[in-house]
Amino acid sequence: MSGEDAAPAQQQNAVDQKQETKPAEEPKSEPAKTEAEAFTYRALVLTGYGGYDKVKLQVKKGKPALKAGEVQVRVKTCGLNFADLMARQGLYDRMPSPPVTPGMECAGVVEAVGEEVTDRKVGDRVMVLNRFGLWQEVVVSLADHTFLIPDGMSFEEAAAFPVNYITAYMMLFDFGHLRPNQNVLIHAAAGGVGTAATQLCKTVNDVTVFGTASAPKHEALTEAGVTHPIDYRSKDYVEEVRKISPKGCDIVLDPLGGSDTHKGYNLLKPMGKLITYGASNMLAGQKKNLIAVAKNWYHQFSIHTLSLIQGNKSVCGYHLGYLDGETELITQTMNTLLDLYKQGKVKPRIDSTWHLEQVGDAMRKMQERNNVGKIILTTEPMPEEEKKEETKKEDKKRTRRKKTRRRTTRRRTMPRKRRKRKMRKRRRKRRRRRRRRKRRKRRRKRRRSLRKRRNEGLWVVEFLSWERGRGLVWCGGGRVHFLEVMYGIF
Ligand SMILES: NC(=O)c1ccc[n+]([C@@H]2O[C@H](COP(=O)([O-])OP(=O)(O)OC[C@H]3O[C@@H](n4cnc5c(N)ncnc54)[C@H](OP(=O)(O)O)[C@@H]3O)[C@@H](O)[C@H]2O)c1
Question: Phi/psi at 73 (nearest 5 deg)?
């Protein structure tokens, strides 16, 4: 797959579409629009970095151009990935800056094929994998970015398959070289990659899986095949693993980053492998949290090769987004995975399906750590009733926002004089407090110096007591005041 080729193709399309979405200033005498010009389709667009509302549903105009080696797909379902949350906050470097259509995977039906495409035909059910640009009703993609959907696999399952299963497979088998009787630590074991990794571990005999997840998901984890579910929020997962396996783990999959990477490395047995593949810890809240980002960078794991040698450990980094040039490797992995699917050994778990209009709610569900399995977006039009409910909800939110805005502006503008008076009072109080503090400090300092002098005096007096009453007494830098000597303070 040559993602570098595909990305410009998507970008070109985006540029074409941007040009075509400009308001048309056609004179009345112009001929009627051609079929290609009248072609419209809905697309989700990231309009800027920030909260859930930054992803908007828009209508794109004009049929996307189809070049040699490309296919046009009518999209049915799309997969939501953790990277989409990071991209929305501007924390994902494999997506161009907004406005851009996100989406790394989707499933649908081939609608048209370009020249030189021999292995795809109109009507084929396919899943598509790309760096971005797949959250829309119509997608143009390189044919070798598409994979045929096996019989019996639904469009939901197909959209949940590529990113999660390729990632989990390559980490466990290409890097991890997973073998029978080994044990693996999987973080976010109830999530998309986590579920895929657990299922793949079960394809090898007697593999013990430690899986961390929020407590309400533990039943699902046990069902999925996690041997020891761990609630990382209330317990120290390192201790929990050590209780069961004092030597540690053979493989640790680390999507968290920061200090968790250190913990993962320390948990490895000799000859163990740490595979780091994400930085979930960077995400804290709806918008970019600079403290969480800085904390993650500050605790970034780094190691000297000598320590690796002495530790008999291995550290690997994995990023599917940077493998987009490795068409053959990805296709091979996909073929192996699709065979496993056909044998019934792996099956994507779908958490929930959302309409394109509900993308914000879908993202919220993942970000609030409430998903068990994969979250899917469907391009099916939303039923009118649901739409009405959605608009009602939106209106409610908008009025609530307006009210709070009004309240804050009222607070800001109304009692101006009173506010000024308050501020002045506050300033005066602060000044007084500062003065008091200074005074106290000075007093303390004076008392300390007096005590010091007294002590020195005591020491002096011990040896030179016959000098009492003679004024100043000097000895080794210690000075006793005449009056203090007179009145026998010491
Ligand atoms: N390198 C790659 O090529 C690649 C490819 C795919 C995914 N990934 C990485 O794999 C991880 C999982 O991705 P996914 O798409 O399968 O998503 P996911 O696991 O479904 O993500 C959501 C789950 O992650 C857990 N989580 C941990 N820290 C979180 C945080 N700060 N905010 C919100 N949720 C958090 C939560 O579950 P619990 O509370 O139950 O833990 C949440 O339910 C992500 O870090 C992603 O970046 C990497």
Answer: -120, 135
Contacts of 337 (CB under 8 A, 6+ apart): 161, 165, 166, 169, 346
How many other CB atoms sit within 10 Å of the CB of residue 381? 13
Tell me if 20 sits within 8 A of 59, measured CB to CB: no
**Using CA atoms, how far apart are residues 408 and 402, in angstroms rounded to an integer?**
10
What 3-state DSSP class applies to 257? coil
Q: Which amino acid is at 428?
A: R
Distance 242 CA to ligand 1 centre (A): 24
CB-based burial of residue 214 (10 Å sphere; 0-12 exposed, 13-18 middle, 19+ buried)? middle
Take atom 11 of ligand 1 and give the residue whose Cα is closest.
Answer: 255
Q: Using a 6 Å cutoff on CB, does residue 79 contact ligand 1?
A: no
Ligand 1 centroid–CA 167 distance in Å is: 12
Tens of pLDDT, residue by residue over 80-129, are: 999 999 999 999 999 999 999 999 999 999 999 999 999 999 999 999 99
Q: Could you give the CA distance from residue 24 to residue 208 in angstroms, rounded to a whole number?
A: 62
Alpha-carbon span 434 to 424, nearest angstrom: 15
Q: Are 112 and 66 in contact (CB under 8 A)?
A: yes
What does pTM read for this prediction?
0.78
